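Render this sequence as a predicted structure.
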Amino acid sequence: MPAIPSAPVLAGRVALVTGAAQGLGLAMAHALGQAGARVLMADAQAAVHDAAAPLRAEGLEVRAVVADVATEAGWQQMLQAGCDAWGFVDVLVNNAARTASTPLWDIAVEEWDALMAVNLRGCFLGCRALGAHMRSRGQGGQIINLASLAGQQASAATGLHYAASKAGILALTRGFATELAADRITVNALAPATIRSPALEALAPDRQQGLLSAIPLGRFGEPEEVGAAAVFLASDAGAFITGATLDINGGRLMR
């Protein structure tokens, strides 16, 4: 496991992480906090408050807010919470997402719209709201969008609507990176695949083995590895990278 840098490489930064109540969102919030950032953990579920408590007990400066990424009002609520606490937000991690594996012939229009509202519209609204805020501050900033291997190649493991939303996030990333580059705001995407999680471990052993056999590195990824990548892109070390997609997939997609 790679260690998060001991030096506070994100000291002075304020990060907003959506979908932070569990999984990759929680792992990235933890990593950013360990790297010295003050972190606002946002989620549609009140459980985000419970998720924040252990991080505070560890001595990290974190707060939690319940908000809906699918609405402009939700984004204004999150931005206001960050500004009320620390005066600004200069790192955004657009992580909130719905997952689904419904076969394409069975996807109801309502299911398609509900997933797209969170995954794709939520990402768009976040990039726009926080991009405008960072631009108005004139101090630069970093936006990190969570894509997926599912948005880069066809897979029977994920629903077509989920894959389409993640492919759309890659287009949003390039578009906002182009728009905000002159303001020293970088916009990049992380594209994880087969990261260890309770959902993965709940799969039948033969299903897990099938997934494992497709990974050249011969193991599943760890949430902390995605967190380390987020720290890198949010730090000065990643300041000359924008419009890029960082693959975290053990070699399943090489390009």
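Summary. The first helix runs from residue 23 to 34. The longest strand covers residues 185-192.
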